[in-house]
Fold this sequence. Notes:
By secondary structure, this protein is of the alpha+beta class.
Amino acid sequence: xxxxxxxxxxxxxxxxxxxxxxxxxxxxxxxxxxxxxxxxxxxxxxxxxxxxxxxxxxxxxxxxxxxxxxxxxxxxxxxxxxxxxxxxxxxxxxxxxxxxxxxxxxxxxxxxxxxxxxxxxxxxxxxxxxxxxxxxxxxxxxxxxxxxxxxxxxxxxxxxxxxxxxxxxxxxxx
Length: 174
């Protein structure tokens, strides 16, 4: 009957859900223990970045996202932007890595500390000529994103927990 088929379908769905959950848990446990390379890519301005099993493990619910996953994601976005504009073109966005703001903050937001990271020779373009500069910001409990819109002359701060860090915004405006 239709009712029996529905019960069987639910049982099959439940079985596959449990099976897949077990496989994913086992795989992430294995990868986390083995610390094997999962993904590796050349990313503009950052060189070769590699994600390991322990990094992928931080993508699970209720886990702290690590800086390697953030850098890899921003690096992929930077590479996509470079591919979009071609070898001679100028990207619209520049993506800094997670250590940019930490180093910038070290001596009271002195640009000279990170100036060598943004040279024409290193990047192939000048980030200051981009429309937007994307900067990951690590807060005590989570990651947020600062976007410096050079075209509109605005600094935006995106925080999923609705927090504000006026110090970061004020110093990025400098």
